[in-house]
Write a structure and sequence with these properties.
By secondary structure, the protein is mainly α. The protein starts with a helix and ends in a 5-residue tail after the last helix.
Length: 268
């Protein structure tokens, strides 16, 4: 009896955590398949695929906004990795002064209220002609994406034994060749993981796209926001599920590549 009661608090805690995590997802799925749901009913009155057919019909805006979201996320990955790979290598291998301060500097975009930052960024972009453009949205997304790209890339390079590079240098390889043939392939899983994090961050980004891209650039999160604002909760729920699929899939993919030894090096 006592052992059974000892598990009661843990069971309650796990139940509350499970409700907090899966409760919103269950509600999302219910709205996605609900054709009629109104007060005072606790569950949908009529289920069906009516709104799914609306979302996936050829004339729907979902395909265009999804293509725009993927295009922006892909450009954002290329931009971030072009900066993060050399920066991560320098931060992990080079004896840079203020290394910790440099790493913390990449966290600054996360330290300030997003609304105030994006409002001023939108004003500046408007004056230089970047407001309402794909390039402007990519730059805004890249600012946040660099946080993941640089920190994970630095951790991936730091997890590599420097003696492997020295061995390649000792047999005649140049510094560039040893980096391209030894260091970069060994760091590739971590760099791939950072690219996925950047892609997902860009794919789900709403606030920066709203202030910088509207009305000329519409992504899937903006479409979801407009649908929910108009009371089309079924369309918003289906759009949210579409965004959820790559997030879950990529997270499972990252779990395979981002090992504990890499994680231990982040910020180290």
């Amino acid at each position: 009896m006592r052992s059974g009661l000892a598990w009661l608090p843990r069971g309650i805690l796990l139940g509350l955590i499970g409700f907090a995590v899966f409760g919103p997802l269950v509600n999302l799925v219910l709205w996605a398949f609900a054709e009629q749901w109104y007060f005072p009913f606790k569950l949908p009155v009529v289920y069906g695929l009516k709104f799914w057919s609306q979302v996936f019909k050829p004339s729907s805006d979902v395909f265009e906004t999804l293509a725009t979201s993927v295009l922006i996320a892909s450009f954002c990955v290329v931009t971030c990795l072009a900066l993060a790979v050399p920066a991560g290598f320098a931060l992990s291998r080079g004896r840079l002064p203020w290394r910790g301060a440099i790493l913390l500097a990449f966290l600054l975009p996360q330290a300030f209220p997003s609304l105030a930052v994006y409002f001023n960024v939108a004003r500046i972009f408007y004056t230089i002609g970047l407001n309402g453009t794909i390039a402007g949205v990519v730059l805004v997304h890249a600012v946040h994406g660099l946080v993941f790209a640089v920190w994970i890339a630095a951790a991936a390079f730091a997890a590599i034994d420097p003696d492997l590079e020295l061995a390649a240098r000792n047999i005649g390889a140049s510094r560039l060749r040893s980096f391209a043939t030894v260091t970069l392939p060994l760091a590739a899983p971590g760099i791939m993981a950072s690219a996925i994090f950047v892609f997902l961050e860009s794919l789900d980004e709403f606030t920066g796209t709203y202030f910088v891209g509207v009305p000329d650039v519409t992504t899937l999160p903006l479409l979801m926001f407009n649908a929910s604002l108009a009371g089309n909760y079924q369309i918003a729920a289906i759009t949210a599920l579409i965004l959820l699929i790559p997030s879950v899939g990529f997270m499972l993919f990252i779990e395979r590549f981002l090992k504990a030894d890499v994680l231990a090096k982040i910020g180290g």
